[in-house]
Amino acid sequence: MAKREYMAYLLRLWREKQDGSWRATLENPNNGERAGFATLADLVTFLAEKTGEPIQASSASRDTQGKPRPESL
Questions:
Q1: In this structure, what DSSP letter does residue 39 have?
Q2: Under 8 Å between Cβ of 21 and 15
Q3: Element (H, E) at 49
Q4: How many CA atoms, within 13 angstroms, populate the side-chain half-sphere of residue 26?
Q5: Which of 50, 46, 73, 52 has the alpha carbon at shortest distance from 61?
Q6: Is it the case that residue 65 has pLDDT exceeding 90?
Q7: Residue-range domain boundaries for the chain
Q8: E-strand spans in the chain?
Q9: Residue 3 pLDDT > 90, yes or no?
Q10: Is the per-residue pLDDT at 38 higher than 90?
Q11: Residues in a beta bridge with 12
Q12: Which of 21, 23, 20, 3 is nearest to 12 (CA)?
């Protein structure tokens, strides 16, 4: 039987006032370790590396202006 893996993080997101870009931190609740990300792309890359799975946004989950649809959040 394959080993079951589990990861838990507290995700914090905020928008920088100067340039309007999103920033993020992930905190491991088990040991308090934090990782900071200057872009959401960096966050996604980190999660892809941790899981060993490629992560791609689906265009089907976005509206005609490229914004996420509420049901996909």
A1: S
A2: yes
A3: helix 40-51
A4: 16
A5: 73
A6: no
A7: 1-52
A8: 10-15, 22-27, 34-37
A9: no
A10: yes
A11: 25
A12: 23
